[in-house]
Amino acid sequence: MRGLDYEIVLVAYKSAGLVRALLDALPGRPVAVVDNSHDVDGLSAVVAGRPGVRYLDGPGRGFASGANLGVRTSTHDIVVFVNPDSSPDLATLDALAADVAADPGLGAVSATTVLPDGSVEIGVGGWEPTARRAFVHAVGAHKLFPTAGLWARPVPGRPIELDWLSGACMAVRRATFDRLGGFDEQFFVYNEDVAFGRAIREAGLRQRVRTDLLVPHLGGGSGEGKTHMLQLRGASLVRYVRQHHPAATVLGVRLALTLGYAPRYLLARARGRGALAAEHAAYVTGLWRGAPAGTSS
User: Fold this and answer.
1) CA-CA distance, 156 to 88, in Å (whole number)?
2) What pLDDT shows up at residue 226?
């Protein structure tokens, strides 16, 4: 869509191959590539010579700080955050930018990410974490009551009201992002989007997930190993709940999710699926012990 002034912001970590493929699919579009791994994989060479694409040596302190740097140095009216392991087409990016450009009351709008098999990814957004919602997710009841858990898996084409949106493919006015303080850099990775959704709601703005815009997303293509990231995910959730809810809610969320993942861990062990068991254990470790050494949550 012509006339839209937006820049794509990619926060990358050891993902030069994914960034190359994404940039090849978006020729001539303004893109800020924030490299949180300090060019260890030659990402600056991937960016060099591409019209409209700029390389930023990121702070290396997680997604939130990298994304904030991209926005802070942008001169465009709208920014569209895109994960390096997602594959939006130009029409989708234009549609997201057009939505926020047309409606000043819209704090953010996102696409719906889908897995390689075409199914909608759980966690394209969600609701404010509570002990009840954590329990619903832990026992698997969210499969029967899809709006009662923590994380959303919307039906394509069917509108859904959410409290926050995933930043995997999300557009926002730069002025709005700045006014709300950007992403909370206390979160190394995960739940900075939950905190941003809360800021949008508290400012009296709306947010929308476009369930008609489907974007392929590999997941886990820009980060450390899976157990490391899952421990971070658990730690980050607890950090958010602790910031915004009483201690009883923090304990309730921890206990509910532990109740759900402990039997999954035991079942995986019994079936000889050691890697899966380690992933479940890492998530619960994050809930109770915090982030892995050397990182913050």
Assistant:
1) 16
2) 86
Task: Give the tens place of pLDDT for each residue, 146-165.
Answer: 999 999 999 999 999 999 99
Residue 29 lies in a domain: yes
248-262 average pLDDT score: 97
The answer to whether residues 250 and 119 belong to one domain is no
Q: Range of 243's domain?
A: 226-289
Q: Same structural domain for residues 110 and 232?
A: no
Question: Could you report how far apart the first and last alpha carbons of the chain are, in Å?
Answer: 38
Q: Kindly report, residue by residue over 70-118, the tens digit of the pLDDT.
A: 999 999 999 999 999 999 999 999 999 999 999 999 999 999 999 999 9
Give bridge partners of residue 81 from the DSSP assignment: 9, 170
Q: Please, are residues 11 and 36 in contact by the beta-carbon 8 Å criterion?
A: yes
| Contact criterion met (CB below 8 Å) for 7 and 33 | no
Q: Is 193 exposed, middle or buried (0-12, 13-18, 19+ CB in 10 A)?
A: buried
Closest CA to 283 of 217, 219, 223, 237: 237
| Cα–Cα distance, 90 to 81 (Å, whole number) | 13
Same domain as 197, residue 233: no
Is 36 a domain residue? yes
Cα separation, 247 vs 249, whole angstroms: 5
| Whether the model pTM is above 0.85 | yes
Range 80-109 burial, b when 16+ CB lie within 10 A, else e: bbbbbbbbbeeebbbbbbbbbbeeeebbbb
Number of domains in the chain: 2
